[in-house]
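Exercise 7. Given the components listed, write out the predicted structure of the assembled complex. Treat all entries as one system.
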Amino acid sequence: MRWLAKLRMRVTMLFARGRAAAALDEELRFHIEQQIAEYRAAGMSDQDARYSALRLFGNPALLRDQARATWSWSSVEILLRDLRLGVRGLVRAPGFALIAILVMALGIGANVALFTVVRSVILKPLPFKDPGSLVMLYEHGSPENDPAAAYYVVAGGIYAEWKKLNHSFSSMALIQESDVGLAGSGGQLSEKLTALHCTWDLMTTLGVQPALGRDFNAADDSRSANGTVLLSWSLWKRRFAADPAIVNRTIYIDAKPYTVIGVMPAWFAFPDARTELWTPVYHDEPAAFMAMLDTHAFLAVGRLKPGVNAEQATADLSVISRRLHDAHADNPFINKRATSRPLLEHMVGDIEKPLYVLLAATGCVLLIACLNVANLLVARAAGRRREMAIRTALGGGWLRLLRERLTESFLLAAAGGAAGLLLAYGAVAWLVSVRKDMSRVEGIHIDAVVIAFTVGVIALCALFSGLISAFSAKDKQVFLTLHESSRSAGSGPSKATLRKVLLILEVGLTVVLLTGAGLLLKSYDRLRSTDVGCITSNVLTMQLGLPGARYKTPGPGPVNFFDELLRRVRALPGVEAAGLVDVVPGGGYEGDSSFTILEHPALPKGEGLDAMNRAADARYFAAMGIPILRGRTFNENLRLDKANEMLITDSFVKQYFPGEEPLGKHLRTNGRDYVIVGVAADTRFEIGEPPRPMKYFPMANGEMNYATLVLRSSQDVEQIALPVQRVMQSMDRDIGVSDVLTMNQLLGKSMLDESFNTTMLAGFAGLSLLLAAVGLFGVLSYIAAQRTGEIGIRIALGAQRQQVLRLMLLDGLRPALFGLALGLAASVATARLIRTMLYGTKPLDPLVFASVSALLLLVAAVACLVPAWRASRLDPMQALRME
Amino acid sequence: MGKPNDLVQGTLDLLILKTVAPEPMHGWAIAKRIQQVSGEVLQVQQGSLYPALHRLEQQGWIKAKWAESETGRQARFYSLTAPGRKQLAAETANWNRLSAAINLVMAEA
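Answer.
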């Protein structure tokens, strides 16, 4: 039972350590007394016996330590002692400890937060079954060789043929996002939601089962079937109080009845977290529309058969597309080939690069933080050189002293890391709340892997900053150090070489961050100051959708409603002008259609003209301040079938009527003929994109039952939102109103990505600038303190104050200058990397580079000025006496 | 040339086990006994004795107990445990084999 005895021993040694120590002391005392007794018995005097016994015994403290070293847990004991020593040392220098911990916390916190985001959004596989074999399918638009046209939407007819004829996919589903109105029930208001029309096999393709109820089946997915709908978990909880009896209940979507067949699991978000309803697409859309080969309105998601790769599968689909294209050679809008990319890439492709750039930036911040802490530790070590030398002389092992240093830097990093983790927790929560639009944002949270990452970062920081400071100390020159009398007038500037090198690196990294932030800032400014082509201040927009069952299109229902709405709204006090449009400037591409110009000769087979579509009422242009360059706006008296007037834009004229009078010409599009009555100025459909040719249909043609109401006011435009909504509710309770935003808010929302990235990077750059300044200040203060005696002598011998000031300033500014040069060189490379994130800004923008240099030098000068000035004000008598 | 009392670590362990085998003994007595029995050749230094005693105790070969010494003072008496007895037998056999082998080599030369 030896293991039992050993275990008992271990437990005793763990819990009765104090008693064991007392016993050891007693045992050793007994030994000495025994020896004394023996000597006395041999005839020695009391005193001689005592001295001899003690001499024979040796160093009792050492002996005690050696005996203790054999006890179990002694390594733990030593570690605890080191920690205690470390904590005590840090508590004795609270200013140093606090600054170091804060610096580490900021660096680690920023990194952990960004890592959490990158991991959750980009690195984690999608939560679907075998996500690696899921691909998103697209058509390659024209021109064939334009990479920007590679991922176009898919026509329903093309999808049907793909699905029927392919050999590469085990299943394939079609999806289409749309905004729908959910009718109010049981005292709840109607609301507008994001829904996904999908083929019945979407969930099986993804490999997901509803948490409640059943999935769609093939019979649900047809025009003749009853409406069926799957709810998101959050909608079910929010709107239906998580009532399990929801299954088989009927809800009204766009005023049409749908039976709830199931609720999706809480974690399920497809294509993003905003989607709250899924309905069968062949039920919702007319069969003719679903069969069209040239009207691109969908996306397709496919699951590859085992053993088939995406390339082979895409080639397979391209063969089918090509055959359809060739069979309808007269239709130029049937695409020739298919493209694909992994589903994950489709979902996060746009945010991948900015996220990695931000992660790299936080990496730089952390490196700067570590350099700063290393710098502080070096300064601390320099202040303790004599102590260290004495300990080395007394036999302190090199390893022992190194371990003590590392313990100190480990303590700093651990405290900083703990604070950083809290910081990251807050940052992630904040980010999730402000970036609801980011895909996969719902899955971002701190988990075990992130904690492990934090621990790793802490260890790395501790080693990095600890080792730098450990190797800076010249332990081997013990004799020299001890010998160095208090007259250290000879200690020159070389003492701080290592710290200066660290500073150069720090400044260099800061310059890189500053340049990156500067470029993004300029690009963002360019973006923000783009003229979208209309009035943006004091304009309120709100989207409204009319329930399709009661406002059939094409038909008079929507037109009458819109007319009455505009009449009432324009009569409201405070409203200066009001208009209707389907999509406001900056609201996105939305749609286009092909057309022919009746007055022009017919085009050769396989060629066609195409322009973006907008629909507006007659007074929209005046309300938004969009100038009519030629002709006039729509005639308000022409309605429904008679509404055959059309406006085109400036760039439309330039492209399709060069050197020609467009007014009075006729366009045939969507099966109707329109006469051009006016030319409006260009507006941008998206900030950062050049305007494209656009044609305006009259809203009065009755083909639309949704619109964006735009209102201009001289007073605070947000105050008229409520009266306008009240007017609408009084006309029809089922009108879904959403996105009540001022034009500026709407444009700000569309620039959210850019403003977010810019703010973050600018924040990180500012942080590192601050750290670099602190570093410069610290190093120069240290040098100044070290050279107090020397400066005192200089001044006593007649050196001018200005000379001393210049001397010290130069000493501090030199590393800043080296760092600046290094940083500028590195910036040239990094600027190229972020080129694709820039708008209207060259990567080597001289203004940005010049301002960064100026800012850095200014900050460096200010940081150096204080210690330099203090040095120049030294009282020589006091300085010399202080030694 | 090392001092005569420069004992190989394992050897000191063996000597301690052997010494405390007949009866419990305190540290000072163990050192004295080894010195006497070896004819004053082996001098156990305190610097090695106490770490060795504590190590053996941690290993579970010996156990310690407070008892009154011959002078009437409380002292820490070490005695062999059952596993210690087995260990002593094994170590003794080992030592015999080793010393016999060394003797053979020495006789040959």
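Discussion: The first helix of chain A runs from residue 2 to 15. Chain A has 28 helices and 22 strands.
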